[in-house]
TrEMBL record:
It catalyses: S-adenosyl-L-homocysteine + H2O + H(+) = S-inosyl-L-homocysteine + NH4(+); S-methyl-5'-thioadenosine + H2O + H(+) = S-methyl-5'-thioinosine + NH4(+). This is 5-methylthioadenosine/S-adenosylhomocysteine deaminase. It is an enzyme of class 3 (hydrolase). Gene3D superfamilies: Metal-dependent hydrolases, Urease, subunit C, domain 1. InterPro entries: Amidohydro-rel (IPR006680), Deaminase_MtaD/DadD (IPR023512), Metal-dep_hydrolase_composite (IPR011059), Metal_Hydrolase (IPR032466), MTA/SAH_deaminase (IPR050287).
């Protein structure tokens, strides 16, 4: 029998009108939201199996992280302050080549803990050993859109093995874990995959009716290299290959022309804005206000904690709101309400689940977080959305709920052994040959 739960709090719905219900309540039965509105006058007589009175706290949709590499948490702080290509080729890829399923297991657990603690309920992951990642997601109770990342800088035999692995993974795991795990097909990037390999991946995605995910236009070097190799910038290159004929999520999209933004808008390509990683690696600042103005759906991603160096989406949220004000000399370039939508509603669009995720509305999934707003930095309580974007941080999250199940309650993790995960992550890192 499904349990019915009602939470009494200030409800930040992120619905079509950005409604905030100050003395509100959210109820859910099983994995779906069944009520959003004013608090029943008598909570004790409301008729729910459990009533949680958190008056004054904020309840909002779980945050959605649309780009990352969970297993790379083992490389957090290992090689900082380097240009992207040097960081990748000299530091990251040599160690990642030694990763095993066990390595990825503990790196992923470390990432899951961090995301649950800081209010992320859904995330996109592009990596290897994805069957291991999927099992960890299932056990932890998280929601994820997973992809077996495919780098094509190898022999034809290896490329076909990667494509076969990605295909098998998709067939085995798409819509599993009660629908919490879905899959995308993922060529790593235009500069690491030949046109022929990308075309093969697109064809397989078409065959399996799956979306695509790819790194694109992250650095000026990458754009220049694409022009040198193929005579086209990455957007036109991928359009020519037919990628955008399928639902596509691109990560970064930093170096874009106005014409390229028009192409992304034309095909309804979704963009994951990885503001902290792009700044730390000096990749640049994506033209987010221009993309939003032209109707491109822009969500937020952390990238890996090796290039961020955390998975706290509240940092991305605040920076997305303030960075674009500064670089555009425009205090309303990305208002607080729009930034919050990037972390929630547009994130749901980024994982192609906008009908079921991204806002607190009846019928949607009960993916919710509660912020402890009984703290000085939330007061005076003028405008809850402003406080969430500009004043809150991930450590304010007290409850994390996915599909109606508490993964963290009153700051206590319920589905992962944090102490063991930290121990094992340090252990397996020591096995890598640096």
């Amino acid at each position: 029998m499904k349990k019915t739960i009602l939470i009494h709090a200030t409800v930040i719905t992120v619905n079509d009108t950005n409604e905030v219900i100050y003395d509100g309540a959210v109820a859910f039965e099983g994995n779906k939201i069944t009520y959003v509105g004013p608090t029943p006058e008598d909570l004790s007589e409301a008729g729910y199996d459990e009533v949680i009175d958190q008056k004054g706290d904020y309840i909002l949709p779980g945050l959605i992280n649309t780009h990352g590499h969970a297993g790379m948490s083992l490389l957090r702080g290992y090689a900082d302050d380097l240009p992207l290509q040097q960081w990748l080729e000299d530091k990251m890829w040599p160690l990642e080549a030694q990763f095993t399923g066990d390595t990825v297991k503990w790196g992923t657990q470390l990432s899951l803990i961090e995301m649950i603690r800081t209010g992320t309920t859904t995330f996109v992951d592009m990596y290897d050993h994805m069957d291991v990642v999927a099992k960890e997601v299932d056990t932890a109770g998280m929601r994820a859109r997973l992809c077996r990342g495919m780098i094509g800088l190898c022999s034809e035999e290896e490329r076909q093995t990667k494509l076969k692995d990605a295909t098998l993974f998709a067939k085995e795991w798409h819509n599993q874990a009660d629908g919490r795990i879905t899959v995308m097909m993922a060529p790593h990037a235009p500069y690491t995959c030949s046109p022929e390999f990308i075309t093969q991946i697109i064809e397989k995605a078409d065959e399996l009716s799956l979306p695509l995910h790819i790194h694109m236009s992250e650095t000026a070097w990458e754009v220049g290299q694409n022009e040198k190799d193929y005579g086209l910038r990455p957007v036109a290159h991928l359009e020519k290959l037919g990628m955008f004929n399928r639902p596509t999520l691109v990560a970064h999209a930093v170096h874009l022309t106005d014409e390229e933004i028009d192409i992304l808008a034309k095909y309804n390509v979704r963009v994951s804005h990885n503001v902290v990683s792009n700044l730390k690696l000096a990749s640049g600042v994506a033209p987010v206000p221009k993309m939003l103005a032209k109707g491109v759906s822009v969500s937020l991603g952390t990238d890996s904690s090796a290039s961020n160096n955390n998975l706290n989406l509240f940092e991305e949220l605040k920076l997305a709101a303030i960075l674009h004000k500064g670089v555009n000399n425009d205090p309303v370039a990305v208002p607080a309400e729009e930034a919050l939508r990037m972390a929630t509603r547009y994130g749901a669009e980024g994982v192609f689940q906008e009908e079921t995720l991204g806002s607190i509305e009846v019928g949607k999934q009960a993916d919710l977080i509660v912020l402890d707003s009984h703290q000085a930095h939330f007061h005076p309580a003028h405008q809850p959305i402003s406080h969430v974007v500009y004043a809150a941080n991930g450590r304010d999250v007290k409850d994390t709920i996915v599909a109606g199940k508490f993964l963290m309650r009153n700051h206590k993790l319920l589905t992962i052994d944090e102490e063991r995960a930290i121990y094992e992550a340090n252990r397996v890192f020591q096995t890598l040959k640096r």
